[in-house]
Every structure is written in C-alpha cells, then in structure tokens.
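re: that complex we talked abt at group meeting.

here r the seqs, copy pasted straight from the sheet so there may be weird spacing, ignore it
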Amino acid sequence: MDKFVIKSKRSAIESKETPSTKNRKTDCETEQNKRIIWKKINGENLSLEHCQLFSNSEASDLLLKCEEQLEYNTGHLAKVQIFGKWIDIPRKQVAHGDDGLSYKFSGNCIPALPWTPLLTEIRDKITEITGHKFNFVLINRYKDGCDHMGEHRDDEKELKDGAPIASLTLGQQRDFIFKHADSRGKNAKRKIPPVVVELTHGMLLMMKYPTNKYWYHSLPVRKKALGLRINMTFRTMVTKQPDK
DNA sequence: TCTAGTAATGGGC
DNA sequence: AGCCCATTACTAG
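got the structure back, here u go
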C-alpha cells in the first residue's frame, strides 16, 4: 500500500518535485488510461471501487488550480441550523453543475454555479474512465484535519436512482468512514463493523448503488492531518420534471 | 403528522 | 491527546 501523507498545502503542491528522476513524467500521458487499476471494496449492500485517477504531479497541479480558481459559498449558504443555533459548516463548500440544478443541505438550497473549464476537464476525464455522465459537482474544501463532515447519506430524492457518485480527492490524505444504517446509535439493531477507506491524493472513489441507501459516510476530524484537502463529488441529479 | 438530518459538546477509553 | 460515541432542538417535507 502506498501511503502518501501530505503535511501541508505547500508540500502537496510542491511534492511533484522529486529529487530523483524516476518519477519524471514523460509525454506518454495518454497511455495512462490503460494503466488504471481498479480496486473493489464490497460488503452488505456496500459497493465501492477506487483507483489512482491522477498521478501525484497531475493531482498537485489540479489542487493548485482549484486554489487559484474556486470560490466558496459564504453567508447563510455556509451555515447550518442545529439545535436552534446557526453554525458555520466546518469546511468550505460550493456547487457547480448544469443550469437550474441545486443541492439541498439541511434546509439550505445551494444553487449550482456554471461549469468552468477546469471542472469540465475533470468531469470529462472521470466520464472517460468510468463511462458515467454527471450533471453536478459538490466541492468541499477541508483546510486541515479539524475541518470535517458528519455522518450522512446523500439525499436519495435528489439523486438519479441507481447512479453512482464519483468522489475525487486532491491533497491531504484523510480517513473516510462508512457505517451501516442498522448499526448506528445506542439501540442499533445489528453490529456491522464500519468500513474505513483511506482517501489519497489523486484517488477517485466510486460509490455505487445501493451503497448510499444503506451506509452512512463521514470524514471525521484527524488532528494529525495538517494539510489541505479538496474533494469533488460528481453526481447525477434528477432533472426538473416538465410540468404536466 | 411524523421522520430524518445537521455539528458541537463532553465523557469514556 | 486523540478518537469515538451519545446527547442535544428545531426544521423541512
């Protein structure tokens, strides 16, 4: 297992500069598609597949471009109401996608901004590799290991039935934890062990049906993770029904 | 009408 | 010290 721990945003971006020549990129990048190796993680109604979609240097380049180009929601779109209090979400978030789509998040309705050349390029690369088309991407920026996301399932009603979600990691490696709906809480019906996936720089994780129906996922706090992570989850949203 | 979902908090390990 | 878990109140649909 090749663990690549990025200690800071700076090192994430500069890590492509290796002292030796063994990792030097040639101009055969088009050959890369043939070298992609998928790994599967399966369980009861759990179906995940992941691969190293982007090389270390490609992923670092994309992370840098994201930092230069992306802007994140502020104000009420960056807050959530919990137990009566309005709290800033512990990360930054923005959505892009086809015209008219939006993302509902605990009462908030986050409208999709238009696709940008950078996001279109990444989207099309994922489509090329997976064969799946996406009309929406939710981007979450975790500045360090203290930024996180709680346990949740993605809103099934908004997502096209049976469509996978493609999750791209850029930057800091983080743990991603899946918990079965029946094994959560004090009065859990069953004891199903959680599944931990290490999300690494340049890794694409496909969450396939029906994973999201039965399994919650979270990105817990990791105090020792010091670097920046940007995550993009490409989705296929249900497009608005034409009025009858 | 009833269910599910958001994150901070504090205690146990 | 870090990680895990149960608890907390209100809203949208």
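couple things i noticed - Helices of chain A lie at 9-14, 32-35, 56-69, 117-130, 211-214. Residues 80-83, 85, 87, 89-90, 105-107, 148-153, 155 of chain A lie near DNA strand B (CB under 10 Å from a C1').
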